[in-house]
Design brief:
The structure holds 2 protein chains of 2 kinds.
Chain A (H helix, E strand, L loop, with lengths): L3 E12 L2 E12 L3 E6 L5 H8 L7 E6 L2 E2 L5 H6 L2 E4 L13 H5 L1 H5 L9 H14 L15 H13 L5 E5 L7 H16 L3 E5 L3 H7 L2 E6 L2 E6 L6 H9 L16 E9 L7 E6 L2 E6 L6 H8 L7 E6 L2 E2 L5 H7 L1 E4 L3 H4 L7 H5 L8 E2 L2 E2 L1 H15 L15 H13 L5 E5 L7 H13 L5 E5 L3 H7 L2 E6 L2 E7 L5 H9 L3 H10 L1
Parallel strand pairs in A: 3-8, 3-9, 6-7, 7-8, 13-20, 13-21, 16-19, 19-20
Antiparallel strand pairs in A: 1-2, 1-4, 4-5, 9-10, 11-12, 11-14, 14-15, 17-18, 21-22
Helix pairs in contact in A: 6-7, 9-18, 14-15, 15-16
Chain B lengths: L7 H25 L6 H26 L7 H18 L4 H24 L5 H15 L27 H8 L1 E4 L1 E6 H19 L1 H11 L1 H6 L4 H27 L10 H11 L11 H20 L7 H19 L9
Antiparallel strand pairs in B: 1-2
Classes of the chains: A alpha/beta, B mainly alpha.
Chain lengths: 508, 340
């Protein structure tokens, strides 16, 4: 087998009380593509950041080609030959400059590279790099005019120009089309042939099947499974990533009421398959799927943030096609957005201001706000959700993540809705807050239809009456939350059994 | 992490530091400069800051939604020239002049807002462009000359209109309060505008939503706020208040003076930014802006009465602004603790 390029042993990392990595042992071999899989929050990004010098490990050792390796800064990591291409491509390229400058940027930043830019020499050098990577690019083109795939290839070429021996790619295909991804894979295969050790982070099954030599599955800050050999056990890897100990939660499924929201042949993109779905009153539906499966797009369409590419929706029988979140809210469709820090929390406001934000009209007369009315409603929500705080006037920043999330959920529970959509409501929330939020959502569900988007299967199992699986922007499975066939669901999530999927889809 | 909550002295300093400093200044000048303590002197301070204060309250509205308006100074001077043009050249009444100016301010604000919201031009650049445009535009009708009765127009005619008495009243009349002829109209306008802006920003849901936009625009949009409309509204408030300032300036000067109002932009922006530090708000707010304007006024009046030369004024304003910004960003930001 190939030589070990990088060996990690006992890596631990905590942010405050939150243990993100709990003893990682991992080897990355030269001339191999090691795929690292893991759900959100499994600790993949933290591990990458330790390898590329952004974070330092609290405990454990890393060896790089037999030498101890503990980069304090990203430039130290690069100097040691560990190069990372991050998920957001624009971190890796400078769009306003041409391809040559981008490829030669690292040489420009070195001391002694001269005061004046020598364009011709630079273009020649850049062409050399591009040729070495078999990149067919005009080095005079401005990077900003190129497509996402080209930018990605440039970022990788630039990384490789630094004599990288270990290349780390963090979800590189998340914004590439299939043909664009194929160019990337071809490049990675060439680099593998040159003996580069590649750590490839993704949970797109199609990518993994295409290029993986080894699969490492992470879960909750630990290595949950290592798969290698001539035939890789993909299903085993997905199970390891999503957790073995999945058990159906204690859910009593109530009888459903009248249909509230119906999706008829809704398409999330021009190439997406049509989605048909009906959600009823007094029903909690969880929609699960991996990153990029279309959960976010579906939530955006439901809440008027982007138009559907095709098909129609009805709300209580009437056509429903919101153009803005405002229209959606007027129609009684509420969305508790994912990633509360950027989409939900108003950092300068107190709890009360955050909670009543969408419904200030209800708390004001002739536009004048009534503090008493706001505090009363906030107090009721603090009570209902068990928000730990001194009172409604506490600054939102003083609350823990779980309690902030409760405020975000309370914001949308405070007024009656037709459809309540919660996108990843358990993101960055501790287990107790998660239980609290889940219970309150179920308790209050009688008079509305509730849709919860959750990437983690156990979260879906904990909250839903019915679980739908989304894969590649299509509904591929439906499960009543009673004696769920977990293996089938896992297979659907990972898109493993294409044949089966189509049949389920027909039945749905 | 040591939070400010554990340090009552620091918390007190952040909250009341600037007000105490203002009080200290007043006491100091009252002792050091004879004639500083007194109603007439106080009114003079108010009068000196009334127009910049009104402009600053407008900028505050744009700062609240996370924007900035660099065009206020030129809107004010445009209103000054427009009112003179309407009355002196077109021989219209004071009422027409005031309405024309207010409409012009609203229109400029609307265009600023549309440039920023619809054309996605960054706020500083959009309003900078507008500033240039207005500085030039106001000179075109008179070929760059100041407007006064009896001047010769580009077409050879002579202007025969005058500033009406009613218009001049806006700038020169003084109301009686205890003493005869004490409080000038601009001061009253400043206080009323200040109160209205404060009420709007602090007590109404529109103000609340504007602060939400400034703090996290995306979250505000996802909560159903019509972000674009509130941003445009903020620039229109700014434009209208700037034109109010211009009207008062014209009424005080009594002529369309092309060279007036050069300092308006910087002075009013400084007042609004100093306002961040008042009461430890660490954000734009109407009360702080008014206090910020007064602070500068008191300092300049006191120094002038102590015979500090006029050319030190900008230095003093700059120093106050820097101190206030340190208050706001270095000290108050700790108030929110570490966190994300």
């Amino acid at each position: 087998m190939s030589a070990t390029a990088c060996r990690l042993s006992g890596i631990e990392k905590a942010f405050g009380p939150n243990k993100v990595l709990r003893g990682i042992d991992l080897e990355i071999a030269s001339g191999q593509i090691t795929v690292l899989m893991g759900a959100n929050g499994a600790g993949k990004s933290t591990l990458v950041k330790i390898l590329c010098g952004v974070h330092r490990a609290d405990a454990g050792r890393i060896e790089l080609f037999g030498q101890p390796y503990a980069p304090a800064t990203p430039s130290e990591a690069i100097a040691a030959g560990v190069v990372t291409v991050h998920q957001s491509i624009n971190d890796g390229v400078i769009p306003d400059l041409d391809v040559a400058s981008n490829l030669m940027l690292d040489r420009l930043t070195q001391p002694g590279s001269g005061f004046f830019v020598r364009s011709r020499a630079m273009r020649a050098g850049a062409q050399e790099i591009a040729d070495a990577m078999s990149l067919d690019l005009d080095v005079r083109a401005t990077v900003g005019d190129l497509g996402v795939a080209e930018r990605q290839l440039i970022a990788i070429a630039r990384a490789m120009a630094r004599d990288a021996r270990v290349l780390i790619l963090d979800e590189p295909t998340s914004s590439l089309s299939a043909t664009e991804a194929e160019r990337l894979f071809a490049l990675l295969e060439r680099l593998r042939g040159q003996g580069v050790a590649i750590l490839y982070i993704s949970h797109r099954m199609s990518d993994i099947r295409r290029i993986a030599d080894r699969i490492v599955a992470m879960r909750d800050g630990q290595i949950a499974g290592l798969f290698e050999g001539p035939t890789l056990d993909y299903e085993g890897a997905v199970t390891a990533m999503l957790g073995h100990g999945l058990t159906a939660a204690d859910i009593t499924i109530p009888p459903v009421g009248a249909p509230v929201l119906a999706l008829n042949g809704l398409r999330l993109s021009a190439t997406g398959r049509p989605i048909d779905l009906t959600v009823h009153r007094n029903e909690v539906v969880a929609i699960t799927g991996l990153l990029g499966s279309g959960k976010t797009a579906l939530a955006s369409v439901l809440f008027g943030m982007q138009p559907a590419a095709g098909g129609a929706m009805t709300l209580n029988g009437a056509p429903y096609a919101p153009r803005t979140p405002r229209e959606a809210i007027r129609a009684g469709v509420f969305l508790c957005a994912k990633d509360r820090a950027s989409n939900g929390v108003i950092p300068e406001f107190d709890i009360s201001g955050n909670l009543t934000l969408p419904f200030t009209r209800r708390h004001s007369r002739l536009s004048f706000l009534s503090g008493r009315s706001e505090r009363a409603r906030t107090g009721a929500m603090i009570e209902l959700l068990g928000i730990v705080c001194q009172g409604p006037d506490d600054a939102i920043g003083t609350l823990s993540g779980g309690n902030q999330q409760k405020v975000m959920v309370g914001r949308w529970l405070a007024e009656p809705s037709q459809v309540l959509v919660l996108d990843e409501p358990f993101q960055g929330v501790d287990i107790r807050a998660r239980r609290d939020i889940g219970h309150r959502i179920r308790e209050t569900a009688a008079d509305r239809a509730t849709i919860v988007f959750a990437a983690e299967l156990d979260e879906a199992l904990e909250i839903a009456d019915r679980i739908l699986v989304l894969n590649e922007q299509a509904l591929v499975g439906e499960h009543r939350n009673e004696n769920v066939d977990l293996n089938r669901m896992l297979a659907e999530v990972s898109g493993l059994t294409a044949q089966e999927q189509t049949t389920h889809h027909m039945q749905a | 992490m040591k939070s400010v909550q554990d340090q009552p002295l620091l918390r007190f300093a952040i909250r009341f530091g600037f007000l105490i400093l203002l009080l200290g200044l007043v006491v100091f000048f009252s002792i050091a400069a004879s004639g500083f303590a007194g109603a007439r002197s106080a009114v003079f301070v108010f009068q000196s800051v009334a127009i910049t204060g009104i402009l600053a309250l407008g900028v505050t509205a744009t700062l609240v939604v996370g924007g900035f308006d660099l065009s206020i100074g030129s809107v004010a001077t445009s209103a000054l020239m427009l009112s003179a043009y309407v009355m002196v050249v077109m021989e219209q009444s004071a009422f027409v002049a005031v309405v024309a100016c207010l409409a012009m301010g609203a229109l400029v604000g609307l265009v600023n807002g549309l440039l920023i919201v619809k054309m996605k031009v960054p706020d500083l650049l959009a309003t900078l462009g507008m500033m240039f445009l207005l500085v030039g535009l106001q000179r075109i009708p008179t070929e760059g000359r100041s407007i006064s009765t009896g001047m010769t127009m580009p077409d050879g005619s002579t202007t025969e209109g005058t500033f009406s008495a009613g218009f001049l009243w806006l700038g020169r009349h003084r109301f009686d309060l205890v003493l005869d002829d004490l409080i000038p109209v601009p001061v009253v306008v400043f206080l009323i505008v200040g109160l209205l802006v404060w009420v709007f920003l602090e007590l109404t849901r529109h103000g609340r939503l504007m602060y939400a936009i400034g703090s996290n625009e995306r979250a505000a949009r996802l909560a159903g706020t019509n972000v674009n409309r509130y941003k445009i509204l903020a620039y229109m408030i700014s434009g209208v208040l700037a034109s109010v300032g211009g009207i008062l300036l014209a009424a005080r000067l009594g002529r369309g003076d092309i060279a007036s109002g050069n300092n308006l932009l910087l002075d009013s922006v400084a007042a609004a930014l100093i306002g961040f530090a008042v009461l430890g708000a660490a954000k734009p707010n109407a009360f702080g802006t008014a206090i910020g304007a007064l602070f500068v006024g008191v300092l300049l009046q006191g120094l002038t009465m102590m015979n500090a030369p006029y050319y030190t004024q900008d230095f003093v304003k700059g120093a106050v602004l820097v101190v206030a910004l340190v208050f706001t960003f270095a000290l108050s930001s700790r108030k929110r603790g570490g966190g994300h």
